[in-house]
Design brief:
Elements (H helix, E strand, L loop, with lengths): L6 H10 L10 E4 L2 E3 L1 E6 L11 E3 L2 E3 L1 H4 L4 E4 L4 E4 L18 E6 L9 E9 L4 E11 L7 E9 L2 E8 L9 E7 L1 H5 L10 E5 L9 E7 L3 E6 L2 E7 L9 E7 L15 E14 L2 H10 L9 E3 L9 H4 L16 E2 L13 E2 L3 H20 L1
Parallel strand pairs: 1-20, 6-9
Antiparallel strand pairs: 1-2, 3-19, 4-9, 5-6, 7-8, 8-19, 9-18, 10-15, 10-19, 11-12, 11-18, 12-13, 13-14, 15-16, 16-17, 21-22
């Protein structure tokens, strides 16, 4: 006698089927604050910038608009990926020699009077980042005459900067310039020095001697800055951005003796070994996606604490920092650039499904097969 399975029977069976939920499906926690989105880029093992979630920038700024003796010429050729020779390593020379990671270069030598200095910049292709915790492992250049920057940007009056002037780095001085570009800095001729949203913090290490993690946590009313997990400063006031934007990393020079200096006498290379961001999205679709996947925020492992580094990210031990995107089932419905360096996974961008959805699909497929076989 044939067995007949109705849709109601299938649904009843499914109700008894154990649901396997994904870890971190409700988000990622930094210092008690929940963020629904993540972006993680492991540049030590990434070979192709076109599949990294980052876009090399191309533009030219004349000397007047660059506010210096020289203009700026952002060239995609000044951003190159130089992954490690082995996917099992976390430190050492890249396949092209020199420090492994994303190399951002300011070309050495003078471009001539009124010329533009070739530089590098890469920006995230996501522009919906609204509040979050952002960090990057960076080794600055030791060649004087450039400004290296890790920053969040919307426009010239909404910007969060961690900037390093290589001309300021020496045996006794290791400053990082912490800046909130705001309406006040625009009114001051794009000079944040003349506002309350500019601070210089001396670091206990030389940023050009090795890789260190630089981080800023952006809230509605303040921005906290860190280096190697150690708190540096807080900035508050009207300079705190209130709209969504994107991350960027650049190194440039315009010859301004009061800022970048330069141009550098030789090619100046800044290397990035990773960038990680845990944030909320201004995109209503991403907000709806979160509501659909986060069924119970109090369920076990529904949220995940973001591990903090305890040492500078250099050397095979400490440079192997934690990536949710390299774990199983911890990035449900997230846009994930890059593959796991310990496998042969593709580095293409993808939206990761949950184990729950995969398991449910397999279960239903099996039931349909049984219906057809038995009828």
């Amino acid at each position: 006698m044939p067995l007949l399975y109705s849709a109601a029977t299938l649904l009843a069976a499914l109700s008894f089927f154990p649901i396997v939920r994904a870890d971190c499906e409700c988000g990622y926690i930094v210092n008690g604050t929940l963020y629904t989105e993540l972006t993680e880029s492991d540049f030590l093992h990434m070979k192709n910038i076109n599949e990294s979630g980052w876009l090399p920038q191309q533009y030219t700024v004349d000397p007047e608009d660059a506010r210096g003796p020289f203009g700026k010429d952002a060239d995609p050729q000044q951003v190159k990926f130089n992954p490690l020779k082995s996917r099992y390593d976390w430190a050492g020379d890249g396949i092209n020699g020199g420090d492994a990671g994303a190399q951002i270069t300011v070309k050495g030598g003078s471009p001539g009077k009124g010329g533009a200095i070739p530089m590098g910049e890469m920006d995230t292709n996501r522009t919906d980042m609204l509040y979050g915790s952002f960090r990057a492992g960076i080794k600055l250049t030791g060649t004087p005459g450039t400004c290296g920057a890790f920053f969040w940007y919307l426009n010239d009056s909404q910007e969060i900067d961690m900037e390093f002037l290589s001309s300021q780095l020496n045996a006794t001085s290791h400053p990082v310039n912490l800046v909130l570009q705001s309406e006040a800095s625009v009114a001051a001729g794009f000079n944040a020095h003349n506002t309350d949203a500019f601070q210089v913090h001396q670091l206990p290490f030389d940023p050009s001697d090795g890789f260190h993690e630089y981080r800023f946590d952006w809230f509605t009313d303040k921005v906290d800055f860190y280096a190697d997990g150690v708190f540096l400063r807080t900035m508050t006031g009207t300079g705190v951005p209130a709209d969504a934007g994107h991350l960027a990393i650049s190194q440039w020079s315009n010859g301004d003796p009061n800022w970048s200096g330069g141009p550098p006498t030789q090619d100046a290379v800044m290397t990035v070994n990773y960038v990680k961001g845990y944030f909320n999205s201004s995109d209503t679709k991403r907000q709806d996606d979160w509501k659909n996947r986060c069924k119970d925020i109090n369920a076990p492992n529904a949220t995940c604490e973001v591990p903090e580094i305890t040492a500078p990210p250099q050397g095979n031990t400490s440079a192997k920092t934690f990536f949710f995107t390299q774990q199983q089932n911890m990035t449900v419905n997230q846009t994930v650039p890059g593959g796991n360096p310990n496998t042969e996974e593709s580095s293409a961008l993808s939206i990761r499904p949950s184990i729950q959805s995969i398991t449910t699909t397999l279960f239903l497929s099996s039931m349909v097969f049984l219906m057809n076989w038995c009828s």
